[in-house]
């Protein structure tokens, strides 16, 4: 289940400046918060030694990102000790080596400057991460962190079940829309959009043929859900395959 769907259903997005160090990295794990002293990564070394296997290190570097806080040594140590991944509101270095060890790492950039190892910090305590919007995002131990090529989201531990349930329903609806579009339905019809609001729209009073359906429709503002059902019915009538959620995503 991707970050886009989770963010739509209540997951809290981290800042858009975070990205996966190597393409295709994915992460879904409980958070183990880390706070580094600016320019120092001693707390990260402690977290790698102490974090429960399967958890993700979520790291606040106190706004000083001009250091490579995670390097090859820390990445290999984290991978070896069963850390699921690292989300860092700062920079990393040795990115080719991090990619080789296949540890999912999400950071704000790359910096060759080496961090110190002796200035303290904190592990396991609530931290604040940069988020979309003016307010920082609190992250507590036990919150769920999900990350992929689209970004990073936090699922507060008390809301995980509700967010997952809503995201599953949203995913089913989205797959139905994709199937209807693939069958030739218009996104304008399916989503109940008003194209007359866009300058240059030329189809306001015209009929047009939808290539996938081979029939005429006048654009209008009907119930979007009814349009989805209509499109799916047309696809089934032509023998089209509508994959179940498990078929589409390789899950039960």
Observed structural traits:
252 residues, alpha/beta, nine-stranded mixed β-sheet, elongated
List the helices and strands and how they pair.
Blueprint: H1 3-8, E1 12-13, E2 19-20, E3 27-36, H2 42-50, E4 56-60, E5 68-70, H3 72-80, E6 85-88, E7 91-92, H4 95-101, E8 105-107, E9 109-110, E10 121-123, E11 127-129, E12 137-139, E13 144-148, E14 151-155, H5 160-182, H6 187-190, E15 207-210, E16 215-218, H7 224-237, H8 245-249
Parallel strand pairs: 3-4, 4-6, 5-7, 6-8, 7-9
Antiparallel strand pairs: 1-14, 2-8, 3-10, 3-13, 11-12, 13-14, 15-16
How would you describe the overall organization of this protein?
This protein has 252 residues and is an alpha/beta fold. It has helices at 3-8, 42-50, 72-80, 95-101, 160-182, 187-190, 224-237, 245-249; strands at residues 12-13, 19-20, 27-36, 56-60, 68-70, 85-88, 91-92, 105-107, 109-110, 121-123, 127-129, 137-139, 144-148, 151-155, 207-210, 215-218. Strands 1, 2, 3, 4, 6, 8, 10, 13 and 14 form a nine-stranded mixed β-sheet that branches. Strands 5-7-9 form a three-stranded parallel β-sheet. Strand 3 (27-36), helix 2 (42-50) and strand 4 form a beta-alpha-beta unit. The longest helix has 23 residues, at 160-182. It is elongated. The two termini are 13 Å apart. Mean pLDDT is 83; it is low at 205-229 and 231-252.
In short:
This protein is an alpha/beta fold. 31% of the residues lie in helices and 24% in strands. The strands form four sheets. Strands 1, 2, 3, 4, 6, 8, 10, 13 and 14 form a nine-stranded mixed beta sheet that branches. A three-stranded parallel beta sheet has the order 5-7-9.
């Amino acid at each position: 289940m991707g970050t886009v769907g989770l963010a739509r259903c209540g997951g809290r997005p981290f800042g858009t400046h975070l990205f996966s160090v190597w393409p295709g990295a994915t992460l879904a794990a409980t958070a183990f918060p880390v706070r580094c002293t600016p320019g120092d990564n001693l707390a990260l070394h402690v977290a790698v030694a102490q974090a429960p296997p399967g958890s993700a290190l979520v790291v606040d570097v106190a706004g000083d990102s001009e250091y490579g806080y995670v390097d090859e040594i820390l990445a290999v140590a984290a991978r070896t000790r069963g850390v699921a991944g690292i989300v860092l509101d700062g920079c990393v270095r040795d990115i080719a080596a991090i990619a080789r060890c296949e540890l999912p790492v999400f950071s704000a950039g790359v910096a060759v400057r080496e961090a110190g190892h002796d200035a303290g910090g904190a592990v396991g305590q609530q931290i604040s991460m940069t988020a979309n919007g003016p307010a920082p995002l609190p992250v507590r131990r036990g919150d769920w962190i999900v990350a992929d090529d689209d970004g990073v989201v936090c699922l507060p531990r008390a809301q995980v079940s509700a967010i997952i349930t809503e995201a599953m329903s949203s995913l089913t609806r989205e797959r139905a829309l994709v199937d209807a579009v693939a069958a030739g339905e218009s996104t304008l019809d399916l989503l109940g959009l008003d194209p007359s609001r866009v300058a240059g729209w030329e189809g306001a009073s015209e009929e047009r043929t939808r290539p996938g359906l081979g029939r005429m429709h006048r654009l209008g503002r009907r119930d979007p859900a009814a349009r989805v059902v209509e499109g799916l019915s047309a696809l089934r009538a032509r023998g089209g395959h509508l994959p179940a959620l498990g078929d589409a995503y390789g899950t039960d």
